[in-house]
Amino acid sequence: MSAPDRLNLDPIAEARRRWADHGWEAAADGMAAVTSLMRAQQIALSRVESVLRRHGVTFARYEVLMLLYFSRAGSLPMVKIGERLQVHPTSVTNAVDRLERAGLVKRSAHPTDRRATLVELLEPGRELALAATGDLNAEVFTDPGVSPAGVTALVDVLTEMRRGAGDF
Amino acid sequence: MSAPDRLNLDPIAEARRRWADHGWEAAADGMAAVTSLMRAQQIALSRVESVLRRHGVTFARYEVLMLLYFSRAGSLPMVKIGERLQVHPTSVTNAVDRLERAGLVKRSAHPTDRRATLVELLEPGRELALAATGDLNAEVFTDPGVSPAGVTALVDVLTEMRRGAGDF
DNA sequence: GTCACATAGTTGGACGTCCTACTACCTGCA
DNA sequence: TGCAGGTAGTAGGACGTCCAACTATGTGAC
């Protein structure tokens, strides 16, 4: 081939250029940021899920297990789980259903509020959480795919974004 | 209350601290980065979807429309769409099914490869893409929720991450 | 030329997320 | 004390994503 055998360009950089070319300069950077975020999350989630799959859980369920693991009593009301993880109540119901069916957690009555349901971490759940964390730490978190400086910058920017969205 | 009326702390910063306390220092930053990414994506997607809902499309389908809008011929093979958007072929089938049912795109035969299917942008799809982009630019992309410097830093870090993952 | 292998697209299923709607229960105000 | 309004949790449904499996078609090596 006479043309420089140019491999694929970055699709997001291309989109950003097209945005600018169409007179949308003011929005081009934001578009690139949002689109990058979508794709990077997909990449990170995929890496995480491939590790967790060996343990028979998904990231959503793993997060529930870790939340319970770190909780003082080893149990939390459903609504607290939803608040901490920033997900819809029905997503908590879904995750707890599956964790309970797998024998990793147990639902029990709240001692004072009969509307509420406590989710309690069972021993198999605790063991799975620790084992999965070991693998995640070794295979993903110690090298998340960006330089240490990039990691810091990333967390800082996203913290700003989350705070602006009212996350905390 | 005598205690400093401390509002909710950042759940991710808390998790990071717990990670360090448990002897997982080497992984704590990576964990925080990945978790931040998950949550920030959810926030961004939510903002985008709330705008697109008015136009009757989702972000996945909007991306297909824009890809066709920017394509030279106004049409692309399914597989090309999947490659550019980095999604599974079945996700493309799903999105094109719905776009076609809505009269926004049309499937047609590929002129030389009988295995392939071309997706062609129809006039209503082109108009919807432009109108939705106008709203997205005005309501999300011009102010994505982080400072301009943050936007640049974010895109840079995520580009590094995507390149490392073999995205382009 | 043929056949093994690769590629394009679809179908069916699992899973997570959200939304709407609904039941059960709690709480504060009149 | 009693009722209105808020809160906890669940059911059903829409949607996107992936995976596994399958059909149809293209291609290269023998």
Brief write-up:
The first copy, chain A, has 168 residues and is mostly helical. Chain A contains seven helices and three strands.
What does this structure look like?
- The structure is a homodimer of 168-residue chains.
- By secondary structure, chain A is mainly alpha-helical.
- Chain A has 2 domains: 8-55; 57-142, Arc Repressor Mutant, subunit A, CATH 1.10.10.10.
- In chain A, 64% of the residues lie in helices and 8% in strands.
- Chain A is built from 7 helices and 3 strands.
- Chain A has helices at residues 11-21, 25-52, 59-70, 78-85, 89-101, 123-141, 148-164; strands at 75-77, 105-109, 117-121.
- Chain A has a 3-stranded antiparallel beta sheet.
- In chain A, strand 2 and strand 3 (117-121) form a beta hairpin.
- The radius of gyration of chain A is 21 Å and the shape is elongated.
- The N and C termini of chain A lie far apart (55 Å).
- At the A-B interface, helix 1, helix 2, helix 3, helix 6 and helix 7 of A face helix 1, helix 2, helix 3, helix 6 and helix 7 of B.
- Chain A binds a DNA duplex (30 and 30 nucleotides) through residues 42, 46, 49, 58-60, 77-79, 87-95, 98, 110, 113-117.
